[in-house]
């Protein structure tokens, strides 16, 4: 079962597993919150080894039936509330989904797998934000860095990581965790920096840069992350944590200028035209200065490495949004929610409540 399958990263992971592993029966589970979009999965919806189920990880009765009836053997857990700004405005849904939802899933996996023999894995997808914020010359986050989450989002993810480890240490649940840096690529909801700014440049709307744009993020293409998830799932050691990142630190303002330059070229606009949309706005409260991942454990022990350069990945990402304007339009108008009704309402195999 892949949770959060209709979200940004979840949809790339689901597509990759469904395509690469025809013998796996993939249950794609998602509540289809504002961030879940079945259009992200429309190219694989008829594959024999793919089965979408709409459900809430916080609904333990529903999830218990799903575990039993579908004989869930492994979990790749991506379902979460994921946007820092939303967590500042409304923290409680983050605590519910990320902390309680993850805890319910852990307990169901334990219940279900205790009674069976065989190999299982509960793979929890987490974030580098659990480690807090680095100074400009403050080195890198590695797997031993002490947790220091500073936003409601990162505190909820840190809490879920602790729960995962607690179920491992206390009950022997077979788990693995990876903590990844900022992803970008196709299908990302246009509230996050890169897709929001691509959309605003297309529409000639202001580009709201928080503070002075000097915060630093370590950007990784979503397909490189999906590949890391595949490798950790198959080769990661039980109970271990792996940091995943791109060795690709950029100041926000530099990412934004590169984006503006590429979009001027692709949209046939005058060089410098999109940069005029930049507007410095009030900073995000508690804005973490810098994230940077030391991914050498995954590189050395699992032979994972990113394939995309940032310039190539960003250019292809812009191309995807320009070629999929209807996706962007459906998301920004809200009509993407109709896709579920049209395609799935009578086809989704609901578990009897
Ligand atoms: P996203 O917001 O695009 O997708 C999250 C998905 O979870 C959505 O499809 C949503 O409908 C689903 N969901 C939310 N609540 C649910 C619930 N109660 N039950 C079932 N499904 C529910 O997020 P994303 O960017 O794809 O991130 C996926 C995971 O990866 C998250 O756990 C996030 O913390 C982690 N992560 C993200 C990044 C990043 O840069 N985006 C980096 C590192 C780690
Ligand atoms: O590091 C991994 C994390 O990366 C993931 O765990 C989160 O799920 C994901 O949302 C992302 O968090 P960030 O807060 O770093 O991503 P975001 O795209 O929201 O912002 C990136 C940077 O850009 C950050 O420094 C804030 C800034 N920003 C963001 C937005 C949306 C702006 O300046 N203006 C904006 O409008």
Kindly state the percentage of residues in helix: 40-55%
Number of helices: 12
Instruction: Kindly state the number of beta strands.
Output: 12
Q: Can you name the CATH architecture? A: 3-Layer(aba) Sandwich
CATH topology: Rossmann fold
Q: What class would the helix/strand composition place it in?
A: alpha/beta
The Cα radius of gyration reads 20 Å
How many independent structural domains? 1
Low-confidence stretches: 346-353
Distance between the termini: 19 Å
The major pleated sheet works out as:
7 strands, parallel
- The H-and-E topology, N to C, reads as EHEEHEHHEHEEHEEHEEHEHHHH
Distinct small molecules bound, one entry per kind:
nicotinamide-adenine-dinucleotide, 2'deoxy-thymidine-5'-diphospho-alpha-D-glucose
CATH class: Alpha Beta
What share of residues are in beta strands? 15-25%
CATH superfamily: NAD(P)-binding Rossmann-like Domain
Strand numbers in spatial order across the main sheet: 3-2-1-4-5-6-10
Mean pLDDT: 95
Overall body shape? globular
Task: Please provide a written account of the structure.
With 353 residues, this protein is α/β, with parallel strands linked by helices. It has a single domain, classed as 3-Layer(aba) Sandwich (Rossmann fold). Helices cover 42% and strands 15% of the residues. The longest helix has 23 residues, at 92-114. The chain is globular, with a radius of gyration of 20 Å. The two termini are 19 Å apart. Residues 82-84, 127-129, 181-182, 192-193, 196, 208-210, 215, 217, 252, 284, 291 line the site of 2'deoxy-thymidine-5'-diphospho-alpha-D-glucose (DAU).
């Amino acid at each position: 079962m892949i949770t959060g399958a209709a979200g940004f990263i979840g949809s790339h992971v689901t597509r990759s597993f469904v395509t690469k592993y025809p013998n796996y029966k993939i249950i794609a589970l998602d509540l289809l919150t504002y961030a879940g979009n079945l259009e992200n999965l429309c190219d694989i919806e008829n594959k024999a080894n793919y089965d979408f189920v709409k459900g809430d990880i916080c609904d333990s009765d529903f999830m218990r039936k799903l575990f039993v009836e579908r004989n869930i053997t492994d979990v790749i857990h991506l379902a979460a509330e994921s946007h820092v700004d939303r967590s500042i405005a409304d923290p409680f849904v983050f605590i519910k989904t990320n902390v309680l939802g993850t805890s319910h899933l852990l307990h169901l996996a334990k219940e279900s797998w205790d009674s069976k023999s065989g190999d299982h894995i509960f793979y929890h997808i987490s974030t580098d934000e659990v480690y807090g914020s680095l100074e400009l010359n403050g080195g890198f986050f590695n797997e031993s860095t002490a947790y220091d989450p500073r936003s409601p989002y990162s505190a909820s993810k840190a809490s879920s990581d602790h729960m995962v480890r607690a179920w491992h240490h206390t009950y022997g649940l077979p788990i693995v965790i990876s903590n990844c840096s900022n992803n970008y690529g196709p299908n990302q909801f246009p509230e996050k920096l890169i897709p929001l700014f691509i959309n605003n440049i297309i529409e000639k709307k202001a580009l709201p840069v928080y503070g002075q744009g000097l915060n630093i993020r370590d950007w990784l293409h979503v397909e490189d992350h999906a590949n890391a998830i595949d490798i950790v799932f198959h080769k990661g050691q039980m109970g271990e944590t792996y940091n995943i990142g791109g060795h690709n630190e950029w100041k926000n303002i530099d990412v934004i200028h590169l984006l503006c330059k590429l979009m001027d070229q692709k949209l046939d606009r005058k060089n410098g035209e999109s940069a005029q949309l930049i507007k410095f706005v009030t900073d995000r409260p508690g804005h973490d200065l810098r994230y940077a991942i030391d991914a050498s454990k995954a590189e050395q022990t699992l032979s994972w490495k990113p394939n995309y350069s940032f310039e190539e990945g960003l250019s292809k990402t812009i191309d995807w949004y320009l070629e999929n304007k209807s996706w962007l339009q459906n998301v920004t108008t809200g009509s993407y929610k109709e896709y579920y009704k049209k395609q799935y309402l009578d086809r989704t195999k609901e578990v009897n409540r």
